[in-house]
Amino acid sequence: MRHRSHVSTVPALLALAMLTSCGQSTRPSRTQNDRDQPVTVGLAALERGESPAIRGATPDPYQQPEPGSVEELAARSALDLERVLADAATRDASRTTPTPVTRTPPPAPQPEPITQSTDGQGVSVGLVSVERTPQSAGGGPGGAAAGSQASTGLAALAGAETSERSIEGAAAEFSDLLIARAAQSPTPMGDLALAAAIAGSQGRPTPNVGTIAPTERAVLDAIRSIHQSIATSNSEGSPSIDHADALRAAADRASEGLPLRITDARLCTRVNGFGDYNELNVNSFLAGRPARVIVYTEVDRFASRPGPGVRRTVELSQEIDVYHDSDGAHCWKRPAQSISESSRTKRRDFFITNAIELPSTLTVGKYRMKITMRDLTSNSVAETTIPFTIVADAKLAHTSD
């Protein structure tokens, strides 16, 4: 409907232009002489076969019409009509189609200045070294990513330092609480062991509590040393260590000062070496006969002292006694015999073999063989017993191989 209203104005405008051009014509009016001539003079000439003169040649399209002439007025009216139509079309288009708005995008953020590292593996932004990624290797978004990574790296570094200080403070406070509780406890070793582990991980000395024995102090020192060695090996630039060796060294340190211990004792018919023996099939002997047997004994936590040269010497003694089980009467004794061995390195195992002959005077019944081991270096003593019986039936007694 809107377009039809504009089209309907075109005839009116054309009529207006024609009326205006007719009313403003400057062509001179006809004279009296012209009025005497008939209006059909041209047609009459054609009837008579006369050739009327051509009034003019074909007009030049580039020639401007004379001012005030009919041609000039017609051209001006046509131009005015075209301008009116163009203005109407423009107004109609503005009502139906919104004018597009051109937005200028904001300038892209510029990346932080980066400096290529000497090894070519990363970039250095301020105090933080950021690894180069495939996106940041080129231009464009990589520059912004590098700046973002630098900010993240600084934040992570600050957070790590704060976390480290918090852990150290909490560990020290926890250690103080453990030590304070251990001082009031009849069994302080559990709390002190945790405190020693914390002290070792932070490079501090073993907690000092005066209520523990020297052997317990040695255990705490060992706990502290193993945690210190592990913490040191995890730090940057420290030499790598074998944690198994560190544990063994800590165990040796913990065993220092502990008393001698018997770990195994058997009645055997044959011994080939450490832990390699033939045990009796039954610990029973026939009454009225002497019984030959080998006493095998393993010991641990024995001390050593410097020997000749760079050697270490272990010196122990063994004593064997037989007691009647029912009344505890002492029935037989093997006096103490000393054993001494030297080696270039610290010995970790030690065994003793002692061939004995039980007397035939032992009556039927149950007995206990008491083995007493003494460390002649540390003067510590260890004891254990082996039960055996004397029987009258040969079928129940031990049979020789």
Topology readout:
Layout: H1 2-7, H2 9-23, H3 32-36, H4 41-48, H5 70-96, E1 115-116, E2 122-125, E3 128-131, H6 134-137, H7 141-183, H8 189-201, H9 214-234, H10 243-255, E4 261-273, E5 276-279, E6 284-286, E7 291-300, E8 305-306, E9 312-324, E10 330-343, E11 350-358, E12 365-375, E13 381-391
Parallel strand pairs: 6-13
Antiparallel strand pairs: 1-2, 2-3, 4-5, 4-7, 7-11, 8-9, 9-10, 9-12, 12-13
Give an overview in words:
By secondary structure, this protein is an alpha+beta fold. Among the domains are: 1-25 and 69-83; 166-255, no CATH class; 261-396, Immunoglobulin-like (Sandwich). The protein is built from 10 helices and 13 strands. The strands form 3 sheets. Strands 6, 8, 9, 10, 12 and 13 form a 6-stranded mixed β-sheet that branches. A hairpin with a 2-residue loop joins strand 2 and strand 3. Helix 2 (9-23) packs antiparallel against helix 5 (70-96). The longest helix is centred in the middle third of the chain and has 43 residues, at 141-183. The radius of gyration is 61 Å and the shape is rod-shaped. The model is unreliable at 1-17, 19-28 and 114-138 (pLDDT under 50).
